[in-house]
Amino acid sequence: MSYVVSETTGAARRRRWPWVVAAVVVLLLVATTAFWLGRSNSQPAARPTSPAPSPSEQQGPWGPLQWRPVADSPLPFSAEHGPRTVTDGLARGFSHDKAGAVLAALHISTRASSAAGPRTYRAVVREQTYGDKQAQLSQLSRQSSSASAAATRPQQWWYAITGGDPRGDLVQVSLVASSEQSRQMGGYAHLTRTLSWRNGDWRLQVPTPAPELRTSTAGHTRIGGP
Question: Where does the DUF8175 domain lie (predicted)?
Fold first, then answer.
């Protein structure tokens, strides 16, 4: 038996082919979309990345320290140990312990230096020091240096408690700093500072001794730097 396809039937079939192809394409698109949606829903969501810490905040020996420029020198600030307030160049509110004594020695010494300028160092000497204040002011007014501020700027600090009791009324703090100038001279700048706890805060004894050159940081704990 033979099958004879008439011309009319073939033409009708040819007209149906485009619709069949279109329907198949639509079904394939729907299936593909459903497949990829299912995969994306099954995958765990990406975890948000934590913001990078501030480059000026570092971990110090007593917790986080924020380094900020003061009188062209970077100084550490601690939320726990001070200074808690800074008004008209005067840093106040240091804790009555080792960390507070070291921070007070750094801040008061720097702010009572010629680099801070007469307006600031006069106020600091008047309100945050004890001893021969006039001798300290005379010493500051005569200070001069041929070295640039960049060369003498401390880049790293170390400390040691060399006398007294930081939880008592009197303490002696040894500070060692590394700067471009000190490295060229083959060592570190060494400062000795005596502080007294008076009226709820630390006061610096004046006049302060001049810095000395030290060849190592032995016996001192690193505070850090910016």
Answer: 41-211
Q: Can you tell me the distance from the alpha carbon of 208 to that of 128, in angstroms, rounded to the nearest whole number?
A: 13
DSSP 207: S
Predicted model pTM? 0.75
At 143, the pLDDT band (50, 70, 90 cuts) reads confident
Contact 158, 223 (CB under 8 A): yes
* Tens-place pLDDT, residues 164-173: 999 999 999 9
39: how many CB neighbours lie within 10 A of its CB?
A: 9
The answer to whether the CB of 129 falls within 8 A of the CB of 203 is yes
CB count within 10 Å of CB 30 equals: 10
Residue type, 188: Y
Give one DSSP letter per residue of 2-25, joined into a string: -----HHHHHHHHHHHHHHHHHHH
Q: Does position 6 have pLDDT exceeding 80, yes or no?
A: no
Length, in residues, of the chain:
226
**What does the domain layout of the chain look like in residue ranges?**
57-143+152-224
Own/partner contacts of 163-166, CB < 8 Å, gap of 24 or more, are: 163/194, 164/194, 166/96, 166/97, 166/98, 166/100, 166/101
At 201, list the tokens.
């805060």
